[in-house]
Design a protein that fits this description.
With 116 residues, the chain is α+β, with helices and mostly antiparallel strands. 18% of the residues lie in helices and 37% in strands. The protein is built from 3 helices and 9 strands; from the N terminus they run ββαββββββαβα. The strands form 2 sheets. Strands 1, 2, 3, 4, 7 and 8 form a 6-stranded antiparallel beta sheet that branches. A 3-stranded antiparallel beta sheet has the order 6-5-9. The longest helix has 9 residues. 28% of the residues are buried.
Length: 116
């Protein structure tokens, strides 16, 4: 099914195919093996990110308005139904692109240093 990859290295949103939850970590990339869901939109679309992103290579990250910190690395946006199963996102690529605030590697590293 259709999903969107938030590619922080290239600062772009790409349409990709995700067939099961097992495809999420490889699609995030950057050696991701464990993912988390830091935000669910009002329409139940969900962003998945590398839960250990600070421990893997990354080129930057992203934020959205009113977020207190960046997500390091890439993200995947999928929809979610009433039972918690993944669906195609209701958010369009253009809407997602308009929400993203790109954060470079230096700013991500400065943020991360506060917690080490």
């Amino acid at each position: 099914m259709k999903a969107f990859k938030i590619n922080s290295a290239e600062r772009k949103v790409e349409e990709i195919e995700i067939n099961s939850w097992e495809d999420i970590a490889p699609a995030i990339g950057n050696e991701c093996t464990t993912f988390a869901c830091p935000v669910t939109f009002e329409n139940e679309d969900t962003i998945y990110v590398d839960d250990e992103g600070l421990y893997h290579p990354f080129e930057g990250g992203f934020m959205m308005e009113n977020w207190n910190y960046p997500c390091v690395g890439n993200g995947i946006l999928q929809g979610t139904d009433d039972e918690g199963e993944s669906t195609e996102p209701l958010t369009t690529k253009e809407e997602l692109e308009a929400m993203i605030i790109w954060v470079d590697k230096v700013k991500c590293s400065i943020w991360a240093a506060q917690f080490n």
